Amino acid sequence: EPEVVAKDLGVPDSVKFDPQGFIVSTQVGSGQVLRIDPRTGDKTVLADIGPGLDNCTFVGDRLFVSHITGGLFEILAQGNVRALVEKGFQWPMGLAVDGEGTVCIADGMFAYTLRPGGRPEQAGMLFAGNYPGFMRGLACSDTGDWFTTTANGTVSRWVPGTEPELLASGGELLMGIALAPGGAVVFADAGAG
């Protein structure tokens, strides 16, 4: 039977041993890089980069972590982080503009907003809860509701930060989505044609 060496983690998604024999684990949900003593379960936060970490590796004593937004970071002493590759979009398949002129971006596991003159801001992510699923198509209402198709064949109405409302399920390969003038939601299923 496996021995549990640590509990109450922030959704661990990678584990490695450092040169001193401690476990180092990235936490996709919390964004923390943890150093765990396998004998006691004591945890030390080496860095807090933000939700979406996906892997780590060592080159000698140097620790590198990757982020699903496309970023790559070196973890330095005292919780400092050096960005080697800044984040970028993964696969932005859905773009829409809401009633205030904000560009809404469906980037698979992430959702972003881009206000005029600003920079993209994360509006949600797959591993943080209250998210419709891996988003593909996107339409936005004038009131800021997001209507989205997902990789798991669903259509949802979503306001970032709230629980999505399931509108349809069972699609094969859902892609584009649009709002009709009367409020109907129209979507394309590339799998079913």
Spans of at least 5 consecutive residues whose pLDDT stays below 50 are: none
Question: What is the CA–CA distance across the termini?
Answer: 49 Å
If strands are numbered along the chain, what order do they take across the biggest sheet? 1-2-3-4
Structural class: mainly beta
Overall mean pLDDT stands at 91
Beta-strand percent range: over 45%
Rg, Å, rounded: 20 Å
**Number of distinct beta strands:** 18
Give a brief rundown of this model:
The chain is mostly beta strands and about 190 residues long. About 0% of the residues lie in helices and about 50% in strands. Strand 2 and strand 3 form a beta hairpin.
Keyword list:
193 residues, 4-stranded antiparallel β-sheet, 0% helix, single chain, 48% strand, mainly beta
Structure description:
There is one protein chain. This protein is 0% helix and 48% strand. Strands 1-2-3-4 form a four-stranded antiparallel sheet, with no helix packed on it. Strands 5-6-7-8 form a four-stranded antiparallel sheet, with no helix packed on it. A four-stranded antiparallel sheet has the order 9-10-11-12, with no helix packed on it. The mean pLDDT is 91. β5 and β6 form a beta hairpin. The protein has strands spanning 12-17, 23-27, 32-36, 43-48, 53-59, 62-67, 72-75, 81-85, 94-97, 103-107, 110-114, 121-125, 135-140, 146-150, 155-158, 165-168, 174-179, 185-189. The protein has 193 residues and is mainly beta. It is elongated.
